[in-house]
Amino acid sequence: MSDAACLRFLQWALPRLRLHWPGFRKVRSVVCKRLARRLRALGLADLDAYRALLEREPAEWRALEVLCTIPVSRFWRDGAVFAALERAVLPALAQVARAAGRDALECWSAGCAGGEEPYSLALLWHARLAQRFPGLELRVLATDIDAAQLARAARGCYRASSLKELPPALREKAFERSDELLCLRPGLRAGVEFACRDIRGAAPARIFDLILCRNLVLTYFEPDLRLEVMQRIIDSLRPGGALVVGLHEAPPAGLATLAPWPAQRAIWRAA
Q1: Are 50 and 10 in contact, with CB atoms under 8 Å apart?
Q2: How far apart are the first and last CA of the chain?
Q3: pLDDT one-digit tens code per residue, 106-162
């Protein structure tokens, strides 16, 4: 499969999935390799044959959607974000929750891939903040469309490369070696729940203090879908709650209920 053929196919297929072609320019080689494997698995000669299959069998679009997910994730990805969560955001949210008599902070990691992001959040809380807020739990709902990634997340075992950005003290405290992998200690998985969910559908029936939706909706979805999904996400935030997006992302201008979190990059506060 040539790059040109794959490019033509993606420019045809992505809009039909309500995905935004410019977001895939730098990562299209990943999708193209997956497409090549899919063609071999189906015994198809080329992308023209695959396109004909998609037009003949609508169920195959679901498989294509999964091929187009970009599960780039590492522990402590964009360390400045986790520093801001530790220094400013989580303490502020915890103080409000405790003043309101609540016993937990509710968080949502949307598009959690293999679990590195929600586990990073849990590690941050347990290692550095929980003692400051006794009696207050951190509960994390972690969702993704890819069942295989969620199975990996549930195992909680990772290659060393996934932990290279994690502060060494946290890595030593939180992981134990199992053959070639590093596995999160069982007690540190408490409070993290995984669920297979398409973010384009209805939001979870919860209200959250903190939502992380990084490098997904605002990068890969077409503008109309982006606005629609982000509105549902914001509607799931408690007033005063925090939304974390990618470092190079910003919520659509039409979402007037958000304001930048003071002096923090990529973090927004719900009105």
Answers
A1: no
A2: 49
A3: 999 999 999 999 999 999 999 999 999 999 999 999 999 989 999 999 999 999 999
Q: What is the DSSP letter of 203?
A: P
Tokens of 35: 């497409």
Residue 267's SS3 state is strand
Which of 78, 144, 146, 209 is the catalytic position?
144
* Amino acid, res. 36: A
> What is the distance between the alpha carbons of residues 146 and 125, in angstroms, rounded to a whole number?
26
Has 144 been annotated as catalytic? yes
Q: HSE of 251 in the Cβ direction (CA atoms, 13 Å)?
A: 27
**Which residues on neighbouring strands pair with residue 141, listed in sequence order?**
108, 193
- Is the Cβ–Cβ distance between 109 and 141 less than 8 Å? yes
SS3 assignment, position 129: helix
Cβ-proximal residues to 69 (8 Å cutoff; 6+ apart), any chain: 144, 145, 146, 149
Q: With CA atoms as reference, report the closest residue to 168 among 178, 159, 180, 160.
A: 160
Write down the catalytic residue from 8, 18, 34, 232: 34
- Cα-based angle 244, 152, 130 (whole degrees, multiple of 5): 50
Q: What is the pLDDT of residues 30-84, one digit of tens each?
A: 999 999 999 999 999 999 999 999 999 999 999 999 899 887 789 999 999 999 9
One-letter amino acid of 44: L
pTM: predicted TM-score of the whole model, two decimal places: 0.93
Q: Which residues of 242-257 are buried (b: 16+ CB within 10 A; e: fewer)?
A: bbbbbeebebbeebee
In which band, very low, low, confident or very high, does the pLDDT at 206 lie, cut at 50, 70 and 90? very high
Q: How many residues does the chain have?
A: 271
**Known catalytic residue: 8?**
no
* DSSP reduced 3-state for 207: coil
Question: How many Cβ atoms from other residues are within 10 Å of residue 201's Cβ?
Answer: 9
